[in-house]
Amino acid sequence: MNHAIAILQLLVAAAFVSIPLVRARFGATAMTAAEDELRRQGVRHTALTENGMRFDAGGHETWAPVSAAAVTAASAVLNLLEASWAGAATWTVLGLVLLINCVILYSNLTAVASVQAAFRRKDDEELARVDVAALLKAAESAFPRWVWVLQNARHVIVFGASAAALAALATA
After folding, report:
1. Pairwise CA distance, residues 98 & 37, whole Å
2. What is the mean pLDDT of residues 83-100?
């Protein structure tokens, strides 16, 4: 049973690593598309960089998913080694992973409103008039179409594999 749980955890870890890999490969193109959209709207193209908004694999877009993947993989190793505290580690790690993925999903679903609110807080007239939906659409369109499928598959894997691992652990 521990080996099956470990495999599920490794799937979750791989799903988290996919985030910075995609952003590392296509993020610069997305940033350029977003900057072009700002220019089209008559807004300084540097506004995103000035406000810490990015589409590449920098900052928390790398360390957060890589950290989640590393901790999940470490928990998988405990299961493979059949360590006495592997069950407790699995409950803790996968419980946190489920919460983190809920936050990611919420962030994805509320991106337009969140960016609009962030721009309003800056008290910058130029930022306040940005068509955020068009801005995010421009950045999103710079990623290949399969990234949308990967994003949804990643959520299914994280939620599904985590729930399956925890269910297996609960019945063990």
Report:
1. 34
2. 96
Longest dimension (CA), the chain: 61
pTM: 0.89
Cα–Cα distances in Å, from 107 out to 11, 65, 78, 102?
A: 22, 14, 31, 8
Give the tokens for residue 37: 């959209």
In this prediction, residue 139 carries a pLDDT of 96
Can you state the angle between helices 60-80 and 86-109, rounded to 10 degrees?
Answer: 150
- Kindly write down the DSSP assignment for every residue of 124-164, as one continuous string: -HHHHT--HHHHHHHHHHTS-THHHHHHHHHHHHHHHHHHH
Strands (E), the chain: none
Q: Is the distance from CB of 138 to CB of 33 less than 8 angstroms?
A: yes
DSSP string, 87-101: HHHHHHHHHHHHHHH
- What gap in Å lies between CA 158 and CA 132, rounded to an integer? 29
Per-residue model confidence as pLDDT tens digits over 117-165: 999 998 888 999 999 999 999 999 999 999 999 999 999 999 999 999 9
Q: CB–CB of 43/129 below 8 Å?
A: yes
